[in-house]
Write a structure and sequence with these properties.
heterodimer, A: mainly alpha, Transcription Elongation Factor S-II, Chain A, 2 domains, four-stranded antiparallel β-sheet, 4 strands, 5% strand, B: alpha+beta, 18 strands, binds iron/sulfur cluster, binds zinc ion
Chain lengths: 334, 410
């Protein structure tokens, strides 16, 4: 029952039938304390070391900590919390025997079975849903043994994939809209946590992308596309999408991108404008597209002339940021 | 020199009249895609060059009468299932999508393309043969017209890729034959539709991984330790790598091919002299340590080079697009007049598009052919033609007209 997402745990919480207003009662204080502590642990990335608490408290404080975290309403905080709680669970998972591991996996509806010698066979869809979030080569499907719809996995692999499943599970819970009024005690605690977060979160904020454009810092794939377009060569649809979204992401205005396309070749101005503005999020969906990552460019054979720096990045934008700074430094040193 | 002819209104009307006849006579047999009410439909028409999109049908009869009344040039439906298929993309409410593969001769290099594919520059009139270049080599314009021919050799190459793909789908991905539907595209290739609840809801990233698997993108031999196992019937890529090396060893110009990989003279000699021994050793556990001076890194070089032949050459963009419009089975292709027809898995080897995808009955008509390669249609041989008047069956006329290779005679 120790897994807060297990059927037993959710049913246990349900059976108690307490409402959110009940949390004001004195007897719930240890649970609130623990819930607050859980969020704080996640924010500081440190675990409190002390005797384990009663299982009941661990179980009940989980949903409460979820409520607190989502009330903080900050994506970075939510991610931190989900990561942290998932890691906690991996440690337990690693200790489990194969039978229990399968039980946990099945609670997420995985199609999994045990093979001889602590190995497992997992349906490729269940595998992919989680493995796509990992970057290392060993998680690519092409680097696995796949047969009859099943991927062969070691026990550690299964535990790692389950961690990802748990992380997503928690993230989903955190993104459910809260339509209830929180009791005062809870609000106070959320307020306290928000203050800690505002100090901590700054630390893991993403770095800004440089403001001016520096073509020298383009990664090889983008350089190639950029040159094709300026030379008036034909570029595939996905190639145009890649270049457009890249340029927009590093800060070019839609107007400037449209000019690039229309001045150099026979791209139809009206269609180009439509496409560029669509990608910029100025039309329809209002979502601004992020430019594709390296592995996507590899799939579509647009990753060409890889260089040293390429081996260190997973996204052309990251390449650009690093190279940009390298070039700037080089200049100022001269 | 011939040029690529653009259809006149009269010629369009001629083709359309036969499309109309086809839909009138056959629409009752056209089977809509599974989950029709949840699909978006799209059409291109003979009149304007725009695509009509976001159309939905609730009943088969509506769809059929649309085909009979509008007589579209091309008919498409979404691989995706939507809550509200007729709304704008943002409001459709994506529910899932079939897994679609497109194998097109355009993406396979065949030597015959140099003979039968044409392009012409709209600016300066320069003409050339083979795959259409990015830009006109004379004036640099990107406004090119092209005509690619659905040739037998190219289509056969596409079929070989399809057979490889089907093996992947059944052996590696575990789909059963009744979840796989193979179609001749109506032009230069084949489509595979995987309609299965199992994959319906997977997103773009997961589909991308499937594409990478099929094309061996990002493969690292470190994870396929063929020197330890390496038997030919190993599961998944392990076996494919072994088979790739095995097939490489059978090449007629082995020494030359090894030299192209940058192996040194000594290693090449060691391998070619021991070729029989190497091949023989596959009955056991592979030839990995039996040849002096040929170590693991050499085998690895050969493996990386040759495993491309084991991959399935699919269009990566089509498969990763979860909103893609695809041509509907049983409808006509606007560039050829051929039907997109289902190819039963069991008879794919013997399927012949120039027989099994012909849509029109034997009316005869006279056309003026600018240029055409030789081909066989319904067991009759035609061409090669060059600036001549010929009387041919309507199916042949429509093919050549649609390809811009002929004109209607007044
Ligand atoms: S590795 Fe990434 S950044 Fe480098 S060329 Fe390839 S896609 Fe571009
Ligand atoms: Zn020209
Ligand atoms: Zn050909």
């Amino acid at each position: 029952m120790k897994y807060p997402f297990s059927k037993e745990a959710t049913e246990y919480v349900k059976a108690l039938g307490f409402s959110i207003q009940d949390l004001e009662k004195e007897e719930f204080k240890p649970i609130l304390d623990r819930a607050e502590e859980r969020v704080k642990e996640a924010l500081l990335g440190k675990r409190e070391v002390r005797r384990p608490l009663r299982e009941e408290i661990e179980i009940l404080s989980f949903p409460v900590s979820i409520i607190m975290t989502s009330a903080m309403n900050n994506q970075v905080v939510k991610r931190r919390f989900a990561d942290f709680e998932a890691k906690r669970i991996t440690e337990w998972l690693k200790e489990e025997n194969c039978e229990n591991l399968i039980k946990v996996a099945k609670s997420f509806n995985w199609r999994i079975r045990a093979l001889r010698g602590e190995n497992f066979a997992l349906h490729f869809v269940d595998y992919l849903k989680n493995a796509v979030n990992f970057n290392e080569a060993k998680w690519k499907l092409v680097n696995r043994v796949l047969s009859n719809g099943e991927v062969r996995l070691s026990k550690n692999d299964v535990a790692r994939l389950l961690e990802e499943e748990v992380r997503k599970y928690i993230e989903n819970k955190l993104n459910v809209k809260l339509d209830i009024e929180l009791p005062e005690t809870l609000n106070e605690r959320v307020e306290k946590l928000t203050q800690i977060a505002s100090k901590e979160v700054k630390r893991f904020k993403l770095e800004e992308t440089p403001k001016e454009l520096n073509q020298e810092a383009f990664p090889p794939c983008i350089k190639n596309l950029y040159q094709s377009v300026t030379k008036g060569l034909r570029v595939s649809h996905i190639g145009r999408f890649t270049l457009t979204s890249f340029l927009l992401n590093i800060g070019l205005k839609p107007e400037e991108v449209i000019k690039l396309f229309t001045s150099s070749s026979d791209f139809n101005e009206r269609i180009t404008r439509y496409q560029v503005e669509h990608i910029a999020g100025a039309r329809g969906s209002k979502t601004r597209y992020t430019s594709p990552k390296c592995s996507t460019l590899q799939t579509h054979r647009l990753c060409v002339n890889k260089d040293e720096l390429c081996n260190k990045v997973r996204h052309p934008i990251t390449y650009y940021r690093i190279k940009y700074r390298m070039l700037r430094k080089g200049k100022s040193e001269k | 020199m011939s040029i690529i002819h653009s259809l006149t209104e009269k010629e369009k009307a001629f083709i359309k009249s036969y499309f109309a006849k086809y839909y009138k006579e056959n629409s009752s047999q056209i089977v809509p895609p599974k989950g029709m009410e949840e699909r978006e439909f799209g059409f291109s028409l003979f009149k304007e060059a725009v695509m009509v999109r976001h159309i939905g049908f609730r009943r088969v009869e509506e769809l059929r009468s649309f085909l009979v009344n509008k007589v579209p040039k091309d008919v498409y439906y979404s691989c995706a299932y939507y809550e509200r298929p007729t709304e704008e993309m943002e409001n459709k409410g994506w529910l899932g999508a079939d897994l679609i593969f497109d194998i097109d001769a355009d993406h396979i290099s065949t030597p015959c393309k140099k003979m039968h594919d044409l392009w012409i520059c709209k600016e300066c009139g320069q003409m050339g043969r083979g795959v259409e270049p990015n830009a006109c080599p004379v004036c640099g314009s990107t406004k090119l017209n092209s005509s690619s021919w659905p040739c037998e050799i190219c289509l056969e190459a596409a079929k070989r890729e399809m057979i490889k793909l089907v093996d992947f789908m059944m052996d590696d991905f575990g789909f059963s034959p009744d979840e796989l539907r193979i179609y001749f595209s109506g032009h230069r290739g084949y489509h595979l539709h995987v309609e299965s609840e199992v994959i319906k809801e997977i997103g773009q990233n997961e589909r991308k991984e499937i594409v990478d698997y099929l094309q061996a993108v990002g493969i690292d031999l470190k994870y396929h330790p063929f020197s330890q196992r390496g038997s030919l019937d190993e599961k998944g890529w392990g076996g494919r790598i072994a088979r790739a090396i095995y097939e490489f060893m059978l090449r007629p110009n082995l020494a030359q091919d090894l030299a192209r990989l940058g192996l040194n003279k000594k290693a090449i000699a060691n391998i070619t002299e021991n070729r029989d021994k190497i091949i023989e050793n596959w009955k056991e556990h592979g030839p990995w340590n039996i040849i002096r001076g040929v170590g693991f890194s050499t085998w690895e070089k050969i493996a990386y080079f040759s495993l491309k032949n084991q991959a399935a050459n699919i269009d990566s963009v089509v498969t990763t697009d979860i909103h893609r419009l695809i041509r509907m089975g049983g409808t006509l292709h606007g560039k050829t007049g051929f039907k997109k027809v289902e190819v039963p898995l069991m008879s794919i080897e013997s399927f012949n598009p120039f027989n099994d995808a012909v849509a029109f009955k034997e009316d005869y008509i006279t056309i003026y052919v600018l240029e055409s390669p030789k081909f066989v249609l319904k067991d009759e041989s035609y061409g090669p033609y060059k600036d001549c008047k010929v009387e041919v069956p309507v199916a042949v006329a429509i093919l050549l007209l649609s390809k811009g290779l002929a004109r209607l005679e007044d």
